[in-house]
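Newbie here. two chains, one complex. Structure please?
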Amino acid sequence: MSSTRPQFVFVILVLHLFSLSSLFSQESQLEKSGGTTPFWRSTSFGSQALNPDISLIGDFLIRPGARDSGVNAFSLREAELGLQAAVDPYSRADIFLAVEEEEGKFHVDIEEAFLTFLALPFKSQAKAGRFIMDFGRSHRTHSPERDFSDNPLAFEKLLGVENSMKSNGLSFNLLVPLPVSSYHEVRAEAGETKTSFGEESEAIKSNERFIYAREKNFFPLGENLNLELSGGFGRWQTDGGIEKVKSTSTFEGRAHDLIRSIATGDFTLKWKPNAYRSFLLEGNLLYTFSRPLAEENENGEKKIKHAVNEVQTQGGFIQLQVQPLRRWYLGSRIDYLLNGDSQKEERQYVGILTFFPSEFSRLRFQWNRKDTDGEERSHRFFIQLTWALGPHRPHPF
Amino acid sequence: MISTRLKKMRFQFLLFLFCVFSVSEMNAKALRVVTTTEDIASIARFIGKDRVEVTALVRGAQDPHYIQVRPSDMIKVSRADLLVIVGLGLDGWILPVIDGARNPGVRIGARGFLDASSGIELLEVPTGKVDRSLGDVHPQGNPHYWLDPSNGKIIAKNIMESLSLVQPSEREFFKENFEEFSKKLDQAIIHWKEELAFFKGKQVITYHTTWSYFLKAFGANARNYVEIRAGVPASPKHLQELISQIKKEKIDLIITEPYFDIRLPEKIAASSQARLRVLAPSVGAFAQIKDYFDLFEYNIQELLRL
């Protein structure tokens, strides 16, 4: 752990140097244009105009029949408060606080809170703080704003108890300077996270360090048709914290100090010619690999492990959403998950009907059917009501 | 021998690089102007002529309220010398585009950023408490100001000043073009007002508040709207009330935009005997509307068919 700190300090120092150089070039531009009044000479104090944009999203869920399985049928799943503003001409801050209901009690969670350096040299940007990691379009969207009332199995089982992987760290991205109209971005992220890899997170005693790289590509295929083709790879390592009960054909016991990797690939095809019609097709694949550094068998004997990576779990989904009328959407999603430990295969089929009374409220009906190993079959039904107050900044794309 | 060949290859490579940079330098002489709408792009072309290369992010046939932000828009803004927006919340979707473009020269407050609404006398500025019960209201006022042709001169002046800030050496050139544009627009406005003399005092129904500036410029007035509130589709009750109002007040014209569902205004027109006209809210809304002058020519010819 101690070896990472000097690296972090170095990265933060570099970011500050970059933003200072950016600051000087922009200041000279402001001066040439007649300049703006520096804040220390401003005579306007306490102006409402200087407050950040404040928004609130409420997410209410009704699950008919849920009481039979010990879950509340009515729940205010989340109330998300967003505070967003420019910090200065060179950076902006975005903070999202989520009040969530869990087992009848409410708790406040910092969904995201990060500072973005917007215009660093070489068309680059950097982000520091707590943020949702970018594993694809659906994953980087906040839960209440996602296209379906629940989350794909791959997110639930692979990406943490909150169905999205959040990290405390640094993110650096660079616009690849190509002489074409398509968009290409490379991104590198490093930091610590505690909510990785779903159920295993409960055994984690300390944060895991991670590094993650992603390439994002957007291709305009027409005036209203866009394709995103992106992928990423990351590596997580615990520091003596995790231990996991492991049972395979060759080993029975506990695995210590995992090095785990995740590979992702995703695509989104989006067509939206006007406010009345749209079409969206999205697919996402996630693979996780796990390699214990040490294993302990039932007799308490430990051994250093140098085995090759083994596939733990793989999952993904494909979803389709069609807007036949201005305020109505129809959608379908197919989830797939293969658990590497249990070798259990799960599939889920989801259908939705969404109605927007206005741009700022949404009513959704969702039905799920889940098959485990082609035998166990369960059905779930959701009614979701979501509403938004204030100027919630749109997601970039 | 090998050394000579290497030297020759190096020379050829340097020559190639020189050619590439020369071509890019030639292209770089034209200022790259990105606008959110085609109307502002058209005016920018009149002011900048061959010294600017203008790109609009939204096509004239699209509803500028509902634009899906595209990463390729960020690429265009990242290469821009000047970004011009309509402002007043109409093109609020530009904010994530500016952030994603990583171009400090066109960020809000920089000399390469222009909100073209500066200096416009705004209509329908809400007073009192403003919230979403009023629909998708614009708290700063109605943003469709380019549809009053006299506002075209204010937009042109704003663009002329911004272009001069970005390229001070061309200040006189831009100023001459602005004066030429203003003169041509003044003459056109006199002609258009003569043509639409019959329109003065006319009461009309419009789909959205798009036409407030246009109607005011030519002395007409919107009595009601097809939408129940801005951005909120009409209810059956509202439609019935609208049909009754049209019959009672003998209103004979309904105006709509090409990007709204035509079936509703058609139904109202059929039930009330009022005439329906689909006017162009922007340059490029129909193929024959190539510039800002064509926009008014087209709409006036449509109204003359009454």
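Moderator note: The domain at 122-388 of chain A is CATH 2.40.160.10 (Porin). Chain A touches chain B through 46 residues (CB under 8 Å). Thread marked as resolved.
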